[in-house]
C-alpha cells in the first residue's frame, strides 16, 4: 500500500507572522484509503514534506482566530493594559487605579503606572529604565503599589492620606466550587450551581487554540448540550481573561436570539472553566463546504440573510462580532444558522464609537484593521462579504493562482498585502445581483461599504436586490423553510462533525497540582452562572 500520510504541522510562529491553522489535513494518493478518515483528497503527492499537493486549495481548511497585543505609544512610553492585583496609584493624577478588568496602563519599559484615561496626558518622557513600583502599606494594612517618584513635582507621589476607595458593589468573593460537590449539597436558598458531576461527557466535537468542545448530557434532564472547556493556565494573561469575561457576557446576551448560540450555565474547577451552551447538531458551514465545494445562490442568500439578522442584533447591543467565518456558522437540526464563539467580540460600542484592536482570522480581517485604523461595525460586514463569496464561489476571494508553489506567497504578511491591494474578481458564473452585493460588502473603504451608512445601515442591506426575495419578518421568526435540512438519525448523531474531533478520547487530562498552584483563582471570581430561563424550564421537567 502506498504510504498515505503526509501530515503537515502548520503552527503559529509569531516571530515570522505565519498563519495559525486549526485543521491539519491528512493527504492520500489513494482516495479509496480515506473512507471515513478525512476530507483532504488530492490526486497527487507533495513534491516534498510540508509542501502542498498540486491542485490543493488551502482556503478550505480551518484557521484559528487570534488577537494581536495592543500597545499604546506616548512620549517614548509603550503602555500596555494591565490588571493590578495590588493597590496601585496613577503617576499622573495620583488617584487610585481600581475596578474590574484591566484597570490601568503600565509602560513595559519604565514600569510607569497610569489610568487608561490619563495615559495620553503623560508629558514626562520614558526613561527606558526599569523602575520597580514602590510598595507601601495603606491604612488597612494592605500592600499597595505606586510608581517610583519622578523628579518633576507634578509626578511626585507623596506620602499622604488617600481617600478610602468606593465600596465594592460587586458582591463578596465567590469561592471556587468543589468540582465534585453535587447540586443537592448546596445550602438551602442558595442559587443552584452546576459541577462536572452533573454531566455525562459523550464525545469531543471541536477544538480551538484555547478550548476543547464536548457533547454532554445533563444527567437530571437527559438533555444534550455542548460544553466548552478552557484551561485556566492558558488564560492567565490579562487580555486572555478579558476575552473570557467578554465571551460570557455575550453568551448571556445572545441566549434569547434565534440565530445565536445561547448559554445554559458556567462553572469552574481549580484548573478549568466550563461554558455549557446550546448543542447545535447540524455541524458548521466549514464542514458542509468541504463537501459541497460551493452552494447554490438561494442557499447562500438564505444563510447570509440569517447571519445578517444575527450581526444586526449584536450591533444593536453594542457588540462587534469580529470573528465571522465558516467555522463559526452552525446549522441546527432544521437547517437554520446559529453564530457561535464570542471570544473575539468587542462590547460597549455605541453608534459612532470605534475600537482599534488588531484581531481576527487572517483571511477575514478587514482592510481598515490591516491599515491600523480605528474601526466599528464595518468589519463584520466585510467578513460577511468574504464568507458569502466563499459560499458562492467555493474559494476565498484572496486566493492567488500559483501561490502554493511560491513559499513567499504563503505568509500572513503576503495575505494581508493581497487583502489591501488586490482587486477582487467576481466569478462570471454568479448572477448580477450576487456580484453586486459582493462588491458592496467587499468595498475596501468602510465609508462606502454596504451596511455601513448610518443611520439606515441595516435597511440598506435588507433592501438590496440580492435579498429582494427575503421576507425579513418571517425569516426572523424562523418561518421561512431552510433550503437544506441536515440528515440526523438521533439527538446524538455526530455525522455532521469532523472525525478528527469525534475520534478523540473524551477524558480530561488529570490536574497538575504544580500548575494549579500558579493560577490566581481570584481572577475567576464570579464566573459561575445559570441561565434563569433555562433553569425554570428544567424545573418543570
UniProtKB/TrEMBL annotation:
A single GO BP: establishment or maintenance of cell polarity
InterPro entries, per database record: AGC-kinase_C (IPR000961), Atypical_PKC (IPR034659), C1-like_sf (IPR046349), DAG/PE-bd (IPR020454), Kinase-like_dom_sf (IPR011009), PKC_DAG/PE (IPR002219), Pkinase_C (IPR017892), Prot_kinase_dom (IPR000719)
Biased composition (Basic and acidic residues): 129-141, 153-163
SUPFAM superfamilies per UniProt: Cysteine-rich domain (SSF57889), Protein kinase-like (PK-like) (SSF56112)
Domain Phorbol-ester/DAG-type positions: 77-126
Keyword vocabulary terms for this entry: ATP-binding, Kinase, Metal-binding, Nucleotide-binding, Phosphoprotein, Serine/threonine-protein kinase, Transferase, Zinc, Zinc-finger
Amino acids binding ATP: 232
Key word Kinase present: yes
Disordered, as annotated region: 129-189
EC nos: 2.7.11.13
Uppermost EC category: transferase
Cited Pfam families: C1_1, Pkinase, Pkinase_C
GO MF term (any one): ATP binding
Record family assignment: Belongs to the protein kinase superfamily. AGC Ser/Thr protein kinase family. PKC subfamily.
Identification of the protein by name: protein kinase C
Organism the protein comes from: Diabrotica balteata (Banded cucumber beetle)
Higher taxonomy: Eukaryota, Metazoa, Ecdysozoa, Arthropoda, Hexapoda
Amino acid at each position: 500500500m502506498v504510504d498515505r500520510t503526509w501530515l503537515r504541522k502548520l503552527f503559529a510562529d509569531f516571530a515570522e507572522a505565519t498563519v495559525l491553522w486549526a485543521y491539519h489535513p491528512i493527504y492520500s494518493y489513494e482516495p479509496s484509503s480515506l473512507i471515513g478518515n478525512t476530507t483532504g483528497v488530492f490526486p497527487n503527492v507533495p513534491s516534498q514534506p510540508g509542501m502542498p499537493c498540486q491542485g490543493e486549495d488551502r482556503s478550505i481548511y480551518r484557521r484559528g482566530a487570534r488577537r494581536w497585543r495592543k500597545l499604546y505609544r506616548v512620549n517614548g512610553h509603550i503602555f500596555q493594559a494591565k490588571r493590578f492585583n495590588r493597590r496601585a496609584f496613577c503617576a499622573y493624577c495620583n488617584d487610585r487605579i481600581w475596578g474590574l478588568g484591566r484597570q490601568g496602563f503600565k509602560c513595559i519599559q519604565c514600569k510607569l503606572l497610569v489610568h487608561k484615561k490619563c495615559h495620553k496626558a503623560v508629558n514626562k518622557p520614558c526613561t527606558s529604565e526599569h523602575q520597580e513600583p514602590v510598595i507601601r502599606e495603606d491604612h488597612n494594612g494592605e500592600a499597595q503599589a505606586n510608581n517610583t517618584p519622578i523628579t518633576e513635582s507634578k509626578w511626585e507621589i507623596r506620602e499622604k492620606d488617600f481617600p478610602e476607595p468606593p465600596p465594592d458593589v460587586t458582591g463578596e468573593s465567590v469561592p471556587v466550587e468543589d468540582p465534585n460537590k453535587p447540586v443537592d449539597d448546596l445550602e438551602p436558598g442558595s442559587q443552584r450551581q452546576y459541577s462536572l458531576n452533573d454531566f455525562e461527557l459523550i464525545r469531543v466535537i471541536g477544538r480551538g487554540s484555547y478550548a476543547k468542545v464536548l457533547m454532554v448530557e445533563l444527567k437530571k434532564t437527559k438533555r444534550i448540550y455542548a460544553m466548552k472547556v478552557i484551561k485556566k493556565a492558558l488564560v492567565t494573561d490579562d487580555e486572555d481573561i478579558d476575552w473570557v469575561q467578554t465571551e460570557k457576557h455575550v453568551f448571556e446576551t445572545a441566549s434569547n436570539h434565534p440565530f445565536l448560540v445561547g448559554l445554559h450555565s458556567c462553572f469552574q474547577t481549580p484548573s478549568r472553566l466550563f461554558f455549557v451552551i446550546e448543542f447545535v447538531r447540524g455541524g458548521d458551514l466549514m464542514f458542509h463546504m468541504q463537501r459541497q465545494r460551493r452552494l447554490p445562490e438561494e442557499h447562500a442568500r438564505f444563510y447570509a440573510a440569517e447571519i445578517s439578522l444575527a450581526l444586526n442584533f449584536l450591533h444593536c447591543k453594542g457588540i462587534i462580532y469580529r470573528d465571522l467565518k465558516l467555522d463559526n456558522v452552525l446549522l441546527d437540526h432544521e437547517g437554520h444558522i446559529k453564530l457561535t464563539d464570542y471570544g473575539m467580540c468587542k462590547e460597549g460600542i455605541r453608534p459612532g464609537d470605534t475600537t482599534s484592536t488588531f484581531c481576527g482570522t487572517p483571511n477575514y480581517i478587514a482592510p481598515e484593521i490591516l491599515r491600523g485604523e480605528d474601526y466599528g461595525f464595518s468589519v463584520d460586514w466585510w467578513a460577511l462579504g468574504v464568507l458569502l463569496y466563499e459560499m458562492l464561489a467555493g474559494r476565498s476571494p484572496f486566493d492567488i493562482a500559483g501561490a502554493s508553489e511560491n513559499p513567499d506567497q504563503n505568509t500572513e504578511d503576503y495575505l494581508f498585502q493581497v487583502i489591501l491591494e488586490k482587486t477582487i474578481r467576481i466569478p462570471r458564473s454568479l448572477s448580477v445581483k450576487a456580484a453586486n452585493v459582493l462588491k458592496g460588502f467587499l468595498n475596501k473603504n468602510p465609508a462606502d461599504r454596504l451596511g455601513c451608512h448610518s443611520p439606515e445601515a441595516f435597511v440598506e442591506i435588507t433592501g438590496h436586490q440580492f435579498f429582494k426575495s427575503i421576507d425579513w419578518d418571517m425569516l426572523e421568526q424562523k418561518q421561512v423553510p431552510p433550503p437544506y435540512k441536515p440528515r440526523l438519525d438521533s439527538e446524538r448523531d455526530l455525522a455532521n462533525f469532523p472525525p478528527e474531533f469525534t475520534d478523540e478520547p473524551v477524558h480530561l487530562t488529570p490536574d497538575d497540582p504544580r500548575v494549579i498552584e500558579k493560577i490566581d483563582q481570584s481572577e475567576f471570581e464570579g464566573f459561575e452562572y445559570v441561565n434563569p430561563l433555562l433553569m425554570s424550564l428544567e424545573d418543570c421537567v
